[in-house]
Amino acid sequence: MDNSDYIKYNYDVIQKLKQVPMLQFFEEDDLQKLFRLSEIREYKSGELIFEEGTYDNCIYYLVCGKAKIIKHGKEVSVLKRTGEVFGEMGVLDGSVRSASVYAVDDCMCLAINIGDIDELSVENQYEFRYRIYRGFAEVLANRLRVTTEELIRTKEELEKQNMMNRLLSKSEELIKAKEEIAKLKDELKSKSSDIT
After folding, report:
1. Contact at 8 Å (CB) between 64 and 82?
2. d(Cα 163, Cα 169) in Å, to the nearest integer?
3. Cβ–Cβ < 8 Å for 101, 56
């Protein structure tokens, strides 16, 4: 790649990064500082971005492409939109990765090592952390809203299923009762014909 292609490529990447909702909180100067603390990582289709059970201090923002989240070998979600964040839970609570993330197709991510923010001046550290955590708060609030809606739908489906199971059980009891009544009627008819 010659220098003009490299500059155009970087310009295109920066324009995509500016579309990341969390990064819209940053002024241009602050954004440039953040980019200097960050790393653009490119992944090929099927490549592991990070593995469940491992630890690193990075949060990731999807710049382009798709990534899938896998927990205990099962696909949980597919990230498709520029700016979707992942890897933030481990950074927030200092725990290991709760899931693995793989590139679905060729994708690009912005990786921010939260530990690198400590290299900034104290004033900038607080400002960067505030903006990053504010972005986390919005992401987590949206995820909680979606999860709550899914939980409500699942609960409603379970209630419907339980009602159907109860109705089915009652139907089976009614069929048995009808059979018993028919049997008793037959016995009564038989006894009445014996009496006459």
Report:
1. yes
2. 10
3. no
Residue 116: how many CB atoms within 10 A of its CB? 16
Q: Which of 1.10.490.10, 2.60.120.560, 3.90.1150.10, 2.60.120.10 would CATH assign to domain 3-151? A: 2.60.120.10
What are the domain boundaries of the chain? 3-151
Supply the pLDDT for residue 196: 61
109 by DSSP, 3-state: which? Answer: strand
Give the DSSP letter of residue 17: H
Q: What is the mean pLDDT of each run of 10 residues along the chain (196 residues)?
A: 48 73 72 80 96 90 93 93 86 88 94 80 76 78 87 91 88 88 84 70
Query: What pLDDT does residue 93 have?
Result: 82
**d(C-alpha 114, C-alpha 88), whole Å:** 10
pLDDT score, position 125: 75
> Tokens representing 172?
């089976």
| Burial readout 168-179 (b: 16 or more C-beta within 10 A, e: otherwise) | eeeeeeeeeeee
Helices 122-195, 28-37: inter-axial angle, 10-degree rounding: 80
Q: Rounded CA gap, 40 and 24, in Å?
A: 18
The residue count of the chain comes to: 196
